[in-house]
Amino acid sequence: MTATDVQATGVPRTRPATPSRPKRRREGAAWVFLSPWVLGATVLTLLPMAVSLYLSFTDYDLFNPPHWVGLRNYTQMFTEDPRYWRSVVATLTYVVIAVPLQLALALVVALVLKSVRRAKGFYRSAFYAPSLLGASMSIALVWRAIFNDGGTVDHLLGTGGWVTRPGWALLAVALLTVWQFGAPMVIFLAGLQQIPGELYEAAEVDGASRWRQFLSITVPMLSPVIFFNLVLQTIQSFQVFTPAFAVSAGKGGPADSTLFYTLYLYDRGFVASHMGYASAMAWVLLLVIGAVTAVLFRTSRSWVFYASDTDGGAR
Hints:
Number of strands: 2
Strand order of the largest sheet: 1-2
Structural class: mainly alpha
Order of helices and strands: HEEHHHHHHHHHHHH
Largest sheet: 2 strands, antiparallel
Membrane topology: Multi-pass membrane protein
Number of helices: 13
CATH superfamily of the domain at 91-259: MetI-like
Distance between the termini: 53 Å
Strand content: under 5%
CATH class of the domain at 91-259: Mainly Alpha
Transmembrane segments: 30-55, 92-113, 125-147, 167-192, 213-232, 275-297
Shape: globular
Helix content: 55-70%
Keywords: Cell membrane, Membrane, Transmembrane, Transmembrane helix, Transport
InterPro entries: ABC_transporter_permease, MetI-like, MetI-like_sf
Family: Belongs to the binding-protein-dependent transport system permease family.
């Protein structure tokens, strides 16, 4: 240690330790293994997002170079495009209908499967199958045939084809999403299996009914899982595209009742070749989803219960 390493007080000044060679080698190996993910995230996510943000301020038709127009796409979207607002209303209506119904059905089925003793794996796979098949175009086309004029629903109920009636077409699309309850159902079932059985036994000793046990034990203990499914399904519902495209033949009809946001974004970008306008719509959708997610996280403090909380309350 040299004299310059000693301060005026006579206390030796320690130098920052440099990483050892084995540690640097481990860090280098970690970056080597992470490089595919970093490269993929940069090339497939971050770079396209940056390009999309730039295009949202341009007039771009996919064939000619982008022309900078500033905020014109955004002002036109909010003030001059009535179909844009109809797509917003249709999407919000769909989210409000589909998400609660899907989660409620998933929770009911999970509660039933929890009490099943035999062939639980078979039933779990059978109820999960619609989540794997429902997102395909073929299932959406079959769904359209079922709810079309002369289809199964028309023969059973005599109400006419739902997909040709403005008041019913959106409900038909929402039911297709509700039918795909398998993924949240499996998550609910995993959460139910983590609830200690002693809580139900103590409640039975105290004379609590099944409904009281559900409200006082199941719902609070399952609230983190409910919150997780709620956030996940809400984000997915804002981005729904395939069912609306198949049911309305890509037009969002009848009377724009199934003109979901992503369907109108596709129409503006790839049908009308207004890619700059579609990019602006995509960024507004991203901000809205982020805002809705933030609100859900903010409000979760008042109703989501975590067993690790020291005060025994929600956070």
